[in-house]
Amino acid sequence: MQWLNVILQGVLIGGLYAMFAAGLSLIFGVMRLVNIAHGDLIVLAAYVSLMATQAFGMDPLTSLLLVVPVMALIGYALQRGLLNYTLGDDLLPPLLVTFGLSIIIQNGLLELFTADSRKLQAGAIEIQAFQLAQNLWIGALPLIQFVVAVAVIAGLQLLFYRTALGRALRATSDDQAVAQLMGLDTRHVFAVAMALSLAVIAIAGVFLAVRANFDPAIGPARLIFAFEAVIIGGLGSMWGTLAGGIILGVSQAIGAQIDPGWQLLAGHIVFLAILAVRPQGLFPKVSG
Amino acid sequence: MIVEHATRSSRIGLALIAVTIVVLTLAPYWGDRQTLRLLAEMFTFIALASLWNLLAGYAGLVSVGQQAFVGLGGYVLFALAMLFDVNPILAVFVAGPAGGLVAIPVALLIFRLRGAYFAIGTWVVAEVFRLLASQISVLGGGSGISLPASLVIAMAPSRQMREFEMYWLALLLTIAILAVIFALLRSRHGLALTAIRDNELAAQSNGIGVWNIKFTVYVLTAFGTSMVGAFIFLQKLRISPDTAFSVNDWTAFVIFITVIGGIGRIEGPIIGTIIFFALRQTFAGLGSLYLLMMGAVAIVVMLWAPKGLWGMVVERLGWQVLPLQRHLVPGTDARGKS
Amino acid sequence: MPDGPLLKISAIDAFYGDFQALFDLSLSIDVGQVIAVIGANGAGKSTLLKCIAGLMHPARGEIVFANAAITTIPAFEALRHGIALVPEGRRLFPSLTVEENLLIGGQSRRPGPWTLARVYELFPVLAERRNLPAPALSGGQQQMAAIGRALMGNPRLLLCDEISLGLAPIVVRDIYARLPQIIAEGLSLIIVEQDIVQALRAASHVYCLQEGRVALQAPARDLTREKISAAYFGV
What we know:
The structure holds three protein chains of three kinds.
Chain A lengths: L1 H30 L6 H19 L3 H22 L10 H22 L15 E5 L2 E4 H23 L1 H11 L1 H6 L4 H26 L7 H15 L4 H21 L4 H15 L11
Antiparallel strand pairs in A: 1-2
Helix pairs in contact in A: 1-5, 1-8, 1-9, 1-10, 2-3, 2-4, 2-8, 2-9, 3-8, 5-6, 5-8, 9-10, 9-11, 10-11
Chain B lengths: L1 E3 L3 H18 L1 H4 L2 H26 L8 H17 L4 H23 L4 H21 L9 E2 L2 H5 L5 H28 L1 H11 L1 H6 L4 H27 L1 E2 L1 H4 L2 H15 L6 H16 L4 H17 L3 H10 L9 E3 L9
Antiparallel strand pairs in B: 1-4, 2-3
Helix pairs in contact in B: 3-8, 3-11, 3-13, 3-14, 4-5, 4-6, 4-11, 5-11, 8-9, 8-11, 13-14, 13-16
Chain C lengths: L6 E10 L2 E11 L4 E6 L5 H9 L6 E6 L2 E2 L8 H4 L1 E4 L11 H8 L10 H7 L1 H5 L10 H13 L5 E5 L7 H9 L1 H4 L5 E6 L2 H7 L2 E6 L2 E7 L5 H9 L2
Parallel strand pairs in C: 3-8, 3-9, 6-7, 7-8
Antiparallel strand pairs in C: 1-2, 1-4, 4-5, 9-10
Helix pairs in contact in C: 3-6
């Protein structure tokens, strides 16, 4: 029974990891860009939520109404103002520019907020739990997070395959020049994709802030979780990313149960094992 | 027509280099203890940046996880010195092959990833090393360990002699690493590397074994990085997982140096290191603001001067300090053929 | 209705890096006219179309469309002015289905006679395959889809880059047979072709390019085989 509990907790946090990963995967799919600052942007969203709760007295979940648009706007400006200029055949510029961005965000947050650990309080909902069976409990907040994660991924799938915007995103990623002939300004299309990615990051960041302690330095670890979830699940598939997140979450939970110091290591080992045995991931849609 | 490497500016450059090496070797006689330490630190960064440059600028493998080998080298040194009674200076040279050996299975795994995903993969590997190091309680576990005083004293007859030895070790390692890189680039493998750097697809279609070359370069770079790492922690006399595998210290600074100096040019890391240390002396008091500035400068340089400052100079003036380019000159070779 | 020609190209030079592809090239087309641009490989035909559509820009000279200077417009503004290009090699979007490819052709919502229904009427085989991914179609079907996609933008000028390329003659005939329906409402057409026979039948006026220059331009009915060979190969 205890192991069932462990696995359940792993599945639930896997939803959060999948949300971390969805934004990363989206951007890579549309413009072949891997944003090294991705994890730090999640942390930035957490701090924006912190500011919103402190300034307006909102509770964290309500602050989403503010954080999501703010982050989306930041994403649009970031792509339009900086990252669009790094796109091209050479892989060094986007990598090094986003790495520099990562350093800037981490140290900027350090200057503004110090290295103190923070956590957002969501109130009573944090301790609410449902009992599924004897010795099997499910927390309200983790459940909400998981449901939202699934909803976000379903929403992104819907957006990509059932809307005009999704068509525009897929077409631009297929063939930039011909997409322009359709009247699409690709600079704008890429910026919208980044705005979308940061909107997802915003949700993930707020959930992270409520769930655990955060400080300016935890960004890179989130990037690594996002990346591992994408690779385990397989490139090009949103549902694969969800599966990848869950597998990562469960691996970490099992590792932690064996020995607390093994939590992260267990996740890395599963990732490396998948890389060794099935490098295309478990549910790939595209190769490479 | 024969292939020649040297130009007038590179001949001047070579002479200057020879003079510089002599001056630096004699530093213990004209410099004080602080100067020696500063110079040794600069040498380690020149070495790390040159190795990173070889990997990224020539083989096209961008790694943000070289701290894996810096830390590995450090831990190998501490293990050999403390657990197996190996002379610390000898241990530095053993760390090299140890790093190279570890790099083989690592490369086999992460070479399945491409481009930026490869980069993050190298980071994951570094994280794994860090977590494993925290589990080794005999070497201090999560909080780290210091080198016992007895071992330190046994290294040399006096403290001054020890400082001199460490300085010369740093100089020797750096010159050796630079010499190997230079020789590699000058060989026909170097021509292949330059081809890969300029256009990988074309290089591959010309029959150049791209995978093999990248693999070899990765392993060699790990070899060199581990040795430098071993030296760094011998110098510090203390190691811990967080310092050994620090992204900021061993990757962020190194990338900054190489980008500012010029990726893909052998002189770039040297120029970059000088600039980095000049900036550090000036702005050291600012803490995280300094890192923030550094990130911003790296972005600006990457977008507006992607070849780095030295790259800009080379393009404008056609200088080279080291004779690495190949150009045809009229004349006859040793066999009397023209 | 603009006064004068719909499109007027005046003395353009175009370069790929240091390589000059077009020399002092001038061309004009009236509303409702169909012209053909023929020439050997590398003569500059595709380059010309790219300059009109904004995918590249001439280093010298002027391009005026419906009294608006379009010499330096970015490619995504071409359709706004009313210019659509059927690219060489079709270049349908592989991640999109046939219908999605057509829909994205109309995403700029320009008013006009062309709708999804009308395109399916013109090319019924596309309606049958509307939900298939674009790469699943045969070459001829892909060409029809590419034309349909361009028409969905309701352009005033349609540029067709080598639509017969790689297709069987019977398929080419089938596509050209629908040209009258395509231009029924007064759409102007520039056809770039290596298949001279079809191009000459469809067009009222012909330009023959040779190494980036106009070697010959005349009404289609005035042209003979000898004149064309001479212009084509520079004999």
